[in-house]
Design a protein that fits this description.
The complex is a heterodimer of chains A (472) and B (86).
Chain A lengths: L5 H10 L3 E4 L8 H8 L9 E4 L10 E3 L5 H7 L8 H12 L7 E2 L8 E4 L5 H4 L13 E2 L3 E4 L12 E3 L3 E5 L2 E4 L6 H11 L4 E7 L3 H7 L9 H9 L4 E4 L6 E3 L4 E7 L5 E3 L2 E2 L5 E2 L2 E3 L1 E9 L5 E2 L9 H5 L2 H14 L3 E8 L4 E6 L6 H10 L10 E6 L7 H11 L6 E8 L12 E9 L21 H11 L2
Parallel strand pairs in A: 1-2, 3-20, 4-12, 22-23, 23-25
Antiparallel strand pairs in A: 2-3, 5-19, 6-9, 7-8, 7-11, 9-10, 10-19, 11-14, 12-13, 14-19, 15-18, 16-17, 21-22, 24-25
Helix pairs in contact in A: 4-10, 7-8
Chain B lengths: L21 E6 L7 E5 L5 E3 L4 H4 L12 H5 L14
Antiparallel strand pairs in B: 1-2, 2-3
Classes of the chains: A alpha+beta (472), B alpha+beta (86).
């Protein structure tokens, strides 16, 4: 089932018992963030939250935790809400195989109902903005897809980018943005600034759930996120031309903000509590001038709480970080069985693999470090046997407790590249990385006394199915 | 809970850096419930209805406070590249 907008997905969440409407009056702060902080603690089937009675506002509609559980993530992909984590990742892998599915241009976008431009723009009139965490520098927008083009190659739709980057609201028509230098928007901005130009952007907020998933998926620079959206949702993604910039934006967004990142300008930003579970900020970052806002009538502000894991962001970037890494590793090493890169966007990764010969597992670990995503992440890589499910953490702990000999199964590689927000590094941008080989040694590596491992009985698989049916 | 801010109780200093020049960014659509202020020096924004730990200088956590030196020494990210030679 493909969703063309946020509201139809909220309806599904509601029907599936995955949406809690908070009808009592709440304070904008700290209630909405505290509720969203609490929601994932309810477990793997935690609900989304909907607020429309917020003190001081007369027209606020705020949706939180929309992706904030495995149940909601399953529903976003059109899967049954009780689909297990590993099954969701494997389904993601099989749908990615259909990439690219070109988007389709559609008339009468939902966000074209209302429009305001130039000096009349006041973002505070349209969005019920709130603070999330105590140390945040102000009100943020952190779940919008930001669309930009390569200034040197604007007709190349592959090089157009849709990504989620944090945005701080600094005035009625002024924003700040954190464009990670190695992320696609950072590359677009650098080219614009080298040319002495501003970078036109569109900010699409309140999207169908697959758009948010692809906008936070690590993809190659010349891969188009809308083409992955089409593969995941089983139908081409509907897009429309933003009126001022002409950029391709989702057809069904609640709000489309257009303007420019002002070239060669920086201003103090943040801090902001990040997905690493730590604040970053107090840096001079780029500034956006808003030139036009288009929006649905009575727009829904879709927002995302992030902080001490797991919060909604962990669910949003769980499966979609595993899949590209799995594909990249599998290309070189078909022995790889599964990749769990769900922790802190892949700062810690667990890989399950067969062993071609002695020492092979360490080679797989090293290959993780040189994949495109591994270059910035993968601070800790744990390699486990093919019969250890990397999504089954008790099994992974068993592997660590029995297969890992610290005298020669820990490989530390110093001074590798590492994303700047990783708090453990001494110099932002570089850091040491660790490979833990928690696999059973195979010939000619004859360390340890492993003898015969106790393996699952061959009939166990059938009995799992039988017991599940008997238990229904 | 409603927070009414009159001229006498409008904030006079930034909770985060102590600067005394503030701008009012917006007021509550329902009149008289809250206002949003911004510091002209460190650009911190807050709503008058927030807990004291976010709105009052003496309750604002020390670890989040900012000085003029912090602002002057703020790292530039991304680094502004050299202009291309035409």
């Amino acid at each position: 089932m493909a969703y063309d907008d946020l509201r139809s997905f909220l309806d599904t969440l509601d029907k599936e018992g995955q949406l809690v409407r908070v009808t009592e009056q709440v304070m904008p702060e700290p209630d909405i963030a505290a509720a969203a902080n609490a929601a994932p603690r309810l477990g793997d089937a935690a609900p989304a939250l909907y607020f429309d009675n917020v003190a001081g506002f007369d027209n606020a509609r705020i949706a939180m935790n929309v992706h904030g559980s495995w149940a909601n993530h399953a529903l976003a992909l059109g899967l049954p809400k009780n689909t297990g984590t590993r099954d969701q990742v494997e389904e993601f892998v099989s749908r990615w195989a259909k990439f690219p599915v070109k988007p389709v241009w559609r008339d009468n976008p939902l966000w074209a109902e209302n429009s305001v431009g130039g000096e009349d723009v006041n973002i505070f009139d349209i969005l019920p903005l709130i603070r999330l965490n105590d140390g945040d520098g102000g009100f943020y927008i952190d779940k919008a897809g930001i669309i930009s083009k390569d200034p040197d190659d604007p007709e190349n739709s592959g090089k157009q980018n849709v990504g989620i980057y944090r945005i701080e609201v600094k005035g009625r028509r002024k924003l700040a943005i954190q464009p990670g230098p190695v992320h696609d928007i950072g590359l677009h901005l650098r080219k614009a600034e080298e040319r002495g130009e501003d970078l036109p952007i569109a900010i699409a907020l309140g999207n169908d759930p697959v758009i948010s998933i692809v906008a936070s998926t690590p993809m190659d620079y010349d891969q188009n996120e809308y083409e992955l959206a089409g593969a995941l949702r089983g139908a081409p993604a509907p897009i429309a031309e933003a009126p001022l910039t002409g950029l391709p934006v989702p057809w069904g967004s609640e709000i489309v903000i257009e303007g420019v990142i002002e070239g060669r300008k920086r201003e103090v930003e943040g801090p902001f509590g990040e997905f690493t579970g730590h604040y970053s900020g107090g840096r001079n970052m780029p500034v956006i001038r808003i030139d036009r806002i288009s929006h649905r009538t009575d727009p829904v502000f879709e927002h995302l709480y992030l902080g001490m894991p797991w919060t909604e962001i962990d669910y949003l970037i769980a499966a979609n970080t595993c899949v590209p890494l799995y594909e990249q590793l599998k290309r070189d090493f078909p022995e790889v069985q599964a990749v769990n890169a769900m922790y802190t966007h892949g700062l810690a990764i667990i890989v399950s693999t067969k062993k071609r010969y002695g020492g092979f597992a360490k080679a797989v670990g090293m290959r993780v470090l040189t994949t495109p995503h591994g270059l910035g992440y993968a601070a800790t890589v744990i390699v486990v046997d093919e019969d250890v499910d990397p999504f089954n953490l008790p099994q992974v702990m068993w592997a660590l407790s029995t297969k890992m000999n610290p005298s020669d199964d820990l490989v530390v590689v110093p001074h590798l590249s590492l994303m700047e927000l990783a708090p453990q590094s001494n110099t932002p941008g570089t850091g040491a990385k660790l490979i833990i080989d928690a696999t059973t040694p195979v010939q000619p590596d004859n360390r340890g006394n492993y003898g015969n491992q106790v393996r699952d009985l061959p009939e166990t698989g059938e009995w799992i199915t039988k017991l599940q049916q008997l238990a229904k | 809970m409603n927070t009414r801010t009159t001229e006498e109780t409008a904030p006079a200093e930034c909770p985060r850096c102590g600067y005394n020049k503030l701008v009012q960014l917006c007021t509550s659509p329902v009149a008289g419930v809250w206002e949003v202020y911004q510091c002209e020096q460190c650009l911190y924004c807050w709503r008058t209805s927030e807990p004291a730990r976010r709105t009052q200088r003496d309750a604002y956590p020390d670890s989040f406070k900012m000085t003029i030196e912090d602002i002057r020494n703020a790292v530039e990210l991304p680094v502004i590249p050299p202009l291309r030679k035409s």
